[in-house]
Amino acid sequence: MKNIILYDTTLRDGMQGENISFSINDKIKIANKLDDIGIHYIEGGWPSSNHNTLQFFKLAKKIKFKNARLTAFGSTRRPYIKASQDLNLKALIECKATVITIFGKSWDLHIKKLMGNTLKENLLMIQDSILFLKKYDREIIYDAEHFYDGYFANPEYAIKCVEVAIKSGCSSIVLCDTNGGTMPHDIERITSIVYRKINDKFNFKINLGIHSHNDCGLALANSISAVRAGASMIHGTINGYGERCGNTDLTSIMPILSLKMNIKCISKSNLKKIKSLSRFISETANITPLNYRPFVGKSAFAHKGGIHVSGIMKEPRAYEHIDPFLVGNKRRVLVSAQSGKSNIRYKIKEMGLEFYKNGFNDKDILSSIKEKEDKGFQFDVAEGSLKILMEKLTNQFKPYFALESFRVTIEKNKQKPCYAYALIKIRVGHRIEITAAEGNGPVSALDNALRKALLKIFPEINDMHLVDFKVRVLEGSDGTDAKVRVLIESRDENNIFTTLGVSDDIIEASWQALADSFQYHLSINNK
After folding, report:
1. Most buried residue, 19, 145, 226, 487, by most Cβ within 10 Å?
2. Which residues are within 8 A (CB) of 90 and not within 5 positions of it... i.e. 6 or more apart?
3. What is the SS3 assignment for 177?
4. Whole-angstrom distance, CA of residue 406 vs CA of residue 427
């Protein structure tokens, strides 16, 4: 069985993605997570580029990684100076990383027109830089930047750049599709040529790698094509974050290699961690997780059509290409107006409800759900509210609190923006709680007041936080009198869940969704 080396560049290339930034502490936490899942190389960044990266390497030296080797990134020396005088190369040595990745030019367009350099001097830059770094007993990985574009323009010279790097002492050569514009069939063809030439010319083994960008949506396909052609190292990022359209997504490449191609990269036990790793990175980056992301997304194993649900109840592999458990995900059956009775039966079993209790059956429940969806509810995107509704429809709902009343006041003056005050009265069993709170808006004030009242009785409320709030007008022709749908996404330590409300009044709809979020959180934490 072939083995693949995984090289993660989330902390450098990933951070070049729009709106993505990690603090030093974030980077330390991410590095530990990457090591835990079995990544072989973790690229920590460019030490000479900023203080943040330099401090990261200082802190990372204290970490004893179990699986990964921490890697520093930089470029070859500048033209027409000695390698020993280059500040970038000096910083790579001073950061104490045992592995150094440097990139050099492979495309004559860049060398001549952008750098004003000569092809000969570029080769010397590659050679001198690697020889200098090797003096300090470092493992060197060479990134052949713009290699594929360079090969199209001048194949002999592009390969010569690679050969100089190998002769100078690097352990791995990585072919970069830096602009992300190369097609998979060309990646496979060119990588195969390079692989054969390296093996024919050099009598020692060297790792051949691929670094793909996603500008054509082909980074994943290109990485697979390179592996088919002989590459044994894949560069990528978690969730595919990166400059422009991103990089190869390691959360997709890992299960594809392991489960589809029978190629070893990480253990089966670590493969089950990739969903939680994906979620951790997106939360740390403060980027909303992509539901449709393959393998790890919330929708990756979601089923809505009644025929599909009926099929997976009999034989899951009839409608699922892998067992979601293998990648730490789970099967989700959605319920909506398009659902069939199979969906209802599946959800009742999944939620632990008694099926025919109190005279209700799947037909009655489905009819009630369709009736509500006609009024604007959408339960396939709000499973928290769906669970509460199904409990109510079967008389199995046990509320943790009930609203008696609330009052919201909004104040505005010319010195400061709008501010809201909420007074809320709820019943918990035989106990009445009356609480007031402030907020940046009416929903914030209601959230704070309800939380304040419930915390006295249910301290676990402190673990739940609202992470997203969406309002949609359902019929725009009615103007400000239109009915609205409010979706609230909440999270606790182990779960992310969505609840909803629908009303002609945005405060009423918000209260429905807010109340459901607290009821749902309490129900799953007080079983």
Report:
1. 226
2. 84
3. strand
4. 12
Count how many Cα atoms sit within 13 Å of the Cα of residue 486 in the half-sphere of its side chain.
Answer: 21
DSSP letter for 381, please.
Answer: G
DSSP line for 71-82:
EEEEEPPPTTS-
Domain annotation for the chain: domains and CATH numbers: 5-284 (3.20.20.70), 302-393 (no CATH), 402-524 (3.30.160.270)
Q: Name the CA dihedral angle for 61, 66, 69, 70, rounded to a multiple of 10 degrees.
A: -40
Residue 307 CB neighbour total at 10 angstroms: 10
Q: Whole-angstrom Cα distance, residue 219 to residue 145?
A: 15
pTM (two decimals): 0.78
Given the structure tokens 């000969």, which residue do they identify?
120
Quote the CA–CA distance of 453 and 428 in Å, as a whole number: 10
Per the CB < 8 A criterion, the answer to whether 47 and 76 are in contact is no
Quickly count: other Cβ atoms within 10 Å of residue 429's Cβ: 10
- In terms of Cβ atoms closer than 10 Å to its own Cβ (0-12, 13-18, 19+), residue 200 is exposed
Which residues lie closer than 8 Å to 396 by C-beta, 6 or more apart? Answer: 353, 354, 357, 358
Q: Going residue by residue through the chain, which has 527 residues, state the pLDDT in tens, using 9 for 90 and above.
A: 579 999 999 999 999 999 999 999 999 999 999 999 999 999 999 998 777 888 999 999 889 999 999 999 999 999 999 999 999 999 999 999 999 999 999 999 999 999 999 999 999 999 999 999 999 999 999 999 999 999 999 999 999 999 999 999 999 999 999 999 999 999 999 999 999 998 888 866 789 999 999 999 999 999 999 999 999 999 999 999 999 999 999 999 999 999 999 999 999 999 999 999 998 898 888 887 898 999 999 889 988 776 777 788 788 889 999 999 999 998 887 776 666 667 777 777 777 777 655 555 677 777 888 888 888 888 877 888 988 988 888 888 889 999 999 999 998 887 778 889 999 999 999 999 999 999 988 999 999 999 999 998 999 998 898 888 888 888 755 555 678 999 999 988 778 889 999 999 999 999 999 999 999 999 988 76
Specify the amino acid at residue 254: M
- Is residue 499 within 8 A of residue 521, CB to CB? The reply is no
CA distance 106 to 121: 12
